[in-house]
Write a structure and sequence with these properties.
This protein is an alpha+beta fold. It has 2 domains: about 15-160, no CATH class; about 170-285, no CATH class. The chain has 5 helices and 13 strands. It has helices spanning about 30-40, 90-105, 125-130, 210-230, 250, and strands spanning about 45-50, 60, 70-75, 120-125, 135-145, 150, 170-175, 180-185, 190-200, 240-245, 255-265, 275, 285.
Length: about 300
């Protein structure tokens, strides 16, 4: 199941732990004042900026693409009284996960998919703010890539399906048999996402087994894949359709959607072969030779 749970890595990368001086007061009238106001936004606010430095941080309507959604503010004064040095980055990450996760879970309706699309994160006080006694974490959620980069979200996380699925046409990198970040499909990649399917109607009860999920997802993905590829003979191109399955924790949190993907197997079946170009409208090249072996629905892990 390599790559099935793209967002379930380390809490946050160093490039996403921001801190700026904040001045409260009148309504913002400049980019600097907007940045300051955005940093202290209330729960339900959506923020965006130009990675990685965030110096142009601003508030946007959550219907617009954004990088961070504020879920709560948490004061950690009890753990870090005056005259205590601020934590280092690694400790900040631990604090954010411990202190912000309960508020994030409540904000998301009481359930947080640990393998889902959203990652818990926080904006921390600057060193100057810390010296002035600011001990507030601005907690929130964001989407991240396997390498720790940021993905935009559209719509409020409070109302969103947490299934960790991708837009059709997304291609994911292949790095030593590990699934990497999204990249253009004309570059070598592991998979192309051809659509998503919902397993909820097939399994209305508790979490089904992975085998049952994969069998049903494989069935549902056939039509999705054919529609996306225009009925391309994938086997003739050395390509294989794959489907994902959900972990029990994801199912318990309400996630029901999985990706349908197209990739290629290495000749010895030990893992994935790199693929170049999209399976939709462009000749697709793979290092894997054409095979008549029945295509599996599981993802080879190498």
């Amino acid at each position: 199941m390599a790559g099935a749970f793209v967002g379930s890595l380390l809490l946050m990368g160093s490039s996403t732990v921001f801190s700026w001086p904040v001045k409260l007061g009148s309504a913002p009238v400049s980019a600097e004042e907007e940045r300051q106001a955005a940093f202290d936004s209330p729960a339900g606010s959506c923020l965006t900026w130009t990675p990685p430095d965030g110096t142009d941080m601003k508030r946007v309507d959550c219907a617009q693409p954004h990088l961070f959604e504020v879920t709560s503010n948490v004061d950690i004064t009890g753990d870090y009284p005056p005259d205590v040095a601020p934590p280092d980055l690694a400790r900040w990450q631990q604090i954010a996960k411990a202190k912000c996760t309960p508020g994030v879970t409540a904000y998301l309706g009481g359930k947080l998919d640990p393998f889902g699309k959203y990652t818990v994160n926080a904006l921390k006080p600057s060193e100057a703010q810390w010296q002035d006694g600011d001990r507030k974490l601005r907690c929130g959620v964001q989407r991240t890539t396997p390498s720790g980069g940021l993905l935009t979200s559209t719509g409020s996380a409070a109302d969103a399906d947490q299934s960790n699925v991708h837009e059709p046409g997304t291609c994911l990198a292949l790095d030593n048999q590990k699934i990497g970040d999204p990249l253009p499909c004309d570059q070598e990649h592991a998979y192309e996402i051809v659509g998503t399917v919902d397993l909820g109607s097939a399994f209305p009860g508790d979490s089904p087994t992975k085998d049952a999920q994969l069998e049903k997802a494989g069935e549902l993905c056939v039509e999705v894949t054919n529609t996306y590829t225009g009925g391309t003979d994938l086997a003739a191109k050395g390509l294989t359709p794959y489907a994902d399955a959900l972990e029990p924790e994801s199912w318990a949190a309400g996630s029901r959607k999985v990706d349908c993907k197209v990739g290629a197997r290495l000749a010895d079946g030990s893992g994935l072969a790199p693929v170049t170009n999209s399976v939709r409208g462009t000749p697709t090249e793979s290092t894997a030779p054409t095979t008549t072996t029945p295509a599996p629905t599981t993802t080879p892990t190498g």
